Amino acid sequence: MNQFLDWGWPPFLTGEFDDLLPILDVSLVAGAFLNLVWIATDPPWVQHTGQIGLNVISLIVTVRTWQIFPFDFSDYTSVWETVARVALVVGIVGLVIATISEVAALFGADGGEEPAEDTAAGNS
Q: Cis (ω within 30 of 0) for the bond into 10?
């Protein structure tokens, strides 16, 4: 990924992509590190806390991508810039929802209640 601009691939990346690389590198390293942690130990609080961290990093990357927008689709159909921006917005909304869900799971949004027993299965 750090060599994309040198390779000229994909052709729609602009020089601003270099501004995005440091945070993309952090994101990749964090994901790899967290997967190693999850291999070693995986209690629910570690899973939820780690996923919240990854979601926040991904949200930062996605928002920064929106701000920098290191793409030039002028050689392509005019719709691609809109498609890319819509995809970024969908990603941002999805990450916010996923993070809220992980926080709720971390703090037990169900109030700590035990699931009700199924009495309809012939236990009358």
A: yes
Task: State the CB neighbour count (10 A cutoff) for residue 16.
Answer: 15
Per the structure block, which two tokens stand in for 60? 């930062």
Nearest Cα to 102, choosing from 56, 61, 35? 56
Contact 21, 2 (CB under 8 A): yes
pTM: 0.78
pLDDT tens per residue across span 58-75? 999 999 999 998 888 888
Q: Cα 66–90–1 angle (5° rounding)?
A: 50
Return the domain boundaries, the chain.
42-108
pLDDT of residue 111: 41
| pLDDT for the residue 121 | 56
**pLDDT at res. 74:** 85
* Residue 91: burial class (beta carbons within 10 Å; 0-12, 13-18, 19+): middle
